[in-house]
Each structure stands twice: as C-alpha cells, then as structure tokens.
Amino acid sequence: MISFWRKIACSDKNYTLSVTFNFSVILNLPVEFLIRYMEDYNISRGKHFYTIGLSYKKADAEVRGHFSLDDVGKRNLLEQAKAEGIDELLITSTCNRTEIYGFAQHPFQLIKLLCEHTHGTVEEFEKVAYVYKNKEAISHMFRVGTGLDSQILGDFEIISQLKSAFNQSKDIGVSNPFLERLVNAVIQTSKRIKNETDISSGATSVSFASVQYILKNYENPADQNILLFGTGKIGRNTCENLVKHTKNHKITLINRTKEKAEKIAGKFELTVKDYADLQAEIRQADILIVATGAQTPTITKELIYNKKDLLILDLSIPKNVSDEVQDLPGVSVIHLDHLSQMTDETLERRKAAIPQAKQIISEMEAEFNTWLETRKFAPTIKALKKKLKDMKDAEVDFQRRKIENFNDRQAEILGDRIIQKIMKQFANHLRGDSNSTDESLELIQKVFQLEEPVKK
C-alpha cells in the first residue's frame, strides 16, 4: 500500500489521470466530473479532500498511543503543514482515534505529517489505518461526529472535540469555508440525533463506563476511598458520574494544576490534594481512576505500596498506567478498551435508534452535498446573469435610439423580469439533474460564450 501511495505521489499527469479514471469507475461517475470536482467547487486548488487515521476498530490502545497527539503536538503539526503549503486541515486525537481531515494532492502527505509528529511509523500506520477520499471522507466525519462510529455507541464527546479542532485550525490559519461548513453540518446533525432519537439516552460514555464498572463490582461503592488523578474533560465527566451514581463524597482529586481540581471539587464539596501527595493518597485508596493526558505513564510501580487491594481504571490514551503495575500483588488494572466493551440496557436501547439516526445523517449529508453542487455551478450562473444583463442593456439602448418616447422604466422592468425567469429555469435544471450538471454547464458556457470561471 505504501509503495502505491508513493507511486501516485510522484506520478506524472497521465498516471494521475489513470488513477482518477479507476476511482471514477468505482463511484460510477464521469471521469471529467472527478477531475473538475474540487476545482469547480472552488474548494481547493487541484487537491482532494481526505480523511486519514486509525481507531479502536483495528488499533489497540498501545498502537493508538503511538499516534496520539496532545494540544502542542497538534499545533506543531498544523503549523508545519501550513509551512509546507497544506493549509486546509483539522486534527482530532482522542482516546478512541487519531484522524486528520484535510486537502492534499495525495494522502501520503498527511500520513507523513502524522508520523513525523508522533511515535508511530508509516509501516505501523499501514497495518491499522484507513484512508477516505472526497465524499467518503465527508460521510466518515458525519458518522464519527454523530457517535455512530464511537467505541461506545452514542458517545457524543467527539463533537466538542471536532469544534475545538476546527477552532484550532482557524486560529493557525489552516481552515477554509468548506471545512467550516462541513463541521457545522455535522454539529447540526449531532443535535438533531440527540433531540429526535434515543441514541443519546442514558449516560453511556467512557467516563460513565468506569463508574458502571465500579457499581457492578462493589457492593457498597459509596464506602470506597476513590482517588481521581487528572481533571481534564474525561476526568471532569468521570467525577460528575461518580458523585451522581455512587453517592460517594469520599472522593479525592489530584491534578498537576491544583486550581483546576479545586474548581471541580468546589462544585461537589470534594477533597483536593497536592500533586506531591499522590503516592500517599494512592496508599489510602481503594480505587484509583487515572484520567491524565500525558504521553508517558504517570503511574508506575514505584508509586504503589498498598497494604490492601487496589483497583486502577486507566482512562488515558496513551496508557498512563505502566504495564508493570498490573503484576503487583493485590492490584487490578482495567483499561478503557475493556470498559468500552461493556453493554447494558442503555446500549441496547441506543442500538434500536441506529436506523433513525442514519436517516437523519442521510438527510443532512444530502443537504451538505447540495450546497457543494450549488457552489459548483454558482460561477456559471453568475456569469450567465451578467451576460443576459449586458444583452438587455444593449437592446434597451438600441430601442431607445430607434423609438420615439421610449419608456426606459418599463423596458428595464420587463427585461429584468425576463432575465429572472430565465435564470430560475437554468438554476432549477442544474439543481435537479446532478448527473448531467457538467454537460449542462459546458453547454451554457458554449451557447452564451461565457468566460471560464476564475479558479481561486
């Protein structure tokens, strides 16, 4: 696969056209359509829209950890991409997946960037990765952003991460109208699915799954000493679920930045300890929940000297609990991949809502693609309108000189109304017959001798 990517990346024009032809056969679309697809939409300059990434479906937690990116890593990748002329992309990196959505001449450009800014290799990526192109890439974002592709069905935490990813791209200057419109469309689709289906019923998420595990394995969860290490988004959600479902207020919070932990603790009247007290607090704990975002393990065997049994739930990607910890006597380590496999009545109820959710996605995705089609023929419609107006103005001027007492006002009104009706007919035809849009645009340009739309 890698050699194939490299072959395309360094191919000549004829080879590129042959690849485009093969792709057009797969999608049952005219070759000319795909060649001009992105250009006519004025979305990108000779590039295609790709999604490259890996997820829990084929990559285990260790491999996902090799390709994970923190905020600094994402920023560095985006800035390098911008410097290399790849200036239209966004990145998501969560516990379940790492993905890059963006425009490139070839996906290997994006894969190379990802591998340069993570601990993963191209060869490792090839074994577990996926690459989607153009409309398939668009569809993939809709599935991911609406929770249908989440490790726990209906986990909508990804949608806020998509928002943050776009905002980061916008701040760095690597966003464009296409990405903004796509992300907004996915956000609106997610809202509709939450409001119109039961796929978001209950409180199932990675954070809730950890609480669910505690509820199922401890007869009196309210009596357990629980230590939560890490108060980022997953940590905050976990804390809220702990208080709500276990009724336990003997929860201690520790975070490297103590102020963040104090803000959450104040809401629930919980205890906060300094980071320096971590080892001592672990010794007192029955349950340790690790929700840190470090790139290397934060919990090692040197920190643990418990005289009683200790359950450790690691909700981090990459793993923040060292593998050697699970060999300590009396210590049980459960990672989020195991937690995510848990099913209950809530998940079964959510599965029943999948067909309705898919229908909503289909509607919203079709609406987005209609917008793309509109962008495609808008330059020609604008040029046609200008041409008709020039023809009208010339004829009115001719008749003004030829006819005595010529009524300019009525002539203008009549001419404008005729132009409006003609434009409406053309626009309706182009919107209603997407299969022949390219041929229709070419015919309009030829008949009315329109100039080629300027490619930006």
Automatic annotation (TrEMBL):
CDD domains: NAD_bind_Glutamyl_tRNA_reduct. One of its GO terms (biological process) is protoporphyrinogen IX biosynthetic process from glutamate. Pfam families: GlutR_dimer, GlutR_N, Shikimate_DH. It comes from the Bacteria. Substrate binds at residues 94-97, 150, 155-157, 161. Residues 356-450 form the Tetrapyrrole biosynthesis glutamyl-tRNA reductase dimerisation domain. The keyword Oxidoreductase applies. Its EC number is 1.2.1.70. PROSITE patterns: GLUTR (PS00747). The active site is at residue 95. Residues 52-197 form the Glutamyl-tRNA reductase N-terminal domain. Pathway: Porphyrin-containing compound metabolism; protoporphyrin-IX biosynthesis; 5-aminolevulinate from L-glutamyl-tRNA(Glu): step 1/2. It catalyses: (S)-4-amino-5-oxopentanoate + tRNA(Glu) + NADP(+) = L-glutamyl-tRNA(Glu) + NADPH + H(+). GO terms for molecular function: glutamyl-tRNA reductase activity; NADP binding. InterPro entries: 4pyrrol_synth_GluRdtase, 4pyrrol_synth_GluRdtase_dimer, 4pyrrol_synth_GluRdtase_N, GluRdtase_CS, GluRdtase_dimer_dom_sf, GluRdtase_N_sf, NAD(P)-bd_dom_sf, Shikm_DH/Glu-tRNA_Rdtase. Residues 217-341 form the Quinate/shikimate 5-dehydrogenase/glutamyl-tRNA reductase domain. Catalyzes the NADPH-dependent reduction of glutamyl-tRNA(Glu) to glutamate 1-semialdehyde (GSA). PANTHER family: GLUTAMYL-TRNA REDUCTASE (PTHR43013). Belongs to the glutamyl-tRNA reductase family. Possesses an unusual extended V-shaped dimeric structure with each monomer consisting of three distinct domains arranged along a curved 'spinal' alpha-helix. The N-terminal catalytic domain specifically recognizes the glutamate moiety of the substrate. The second domain is the NADPH-binding domain, and the third C-terminal domain is responsible for dimerization. HAMAP family: Glu_tRNA_reductase. Homodimer. During catalysis, the active site Cys acts as a nucleophile attacking the alpha-carbonyl group of tRNA-bound glutamate with the formation of a thioester intermediate between enzyme and glutamate, and the concomitant release of tRNA(Glu). The thioester intermediate is finally reduced by direct hydride transfer from NADPH, to form the product GSA. This is Glutamyl-tRNA reductase. It comes from Salinimicrobium sediminis. The lineage of its organism: Bacteria, Pseudomonadati, Bacteroidota, Flavobacteriia, Flavobacteriales. The gene is hemA.
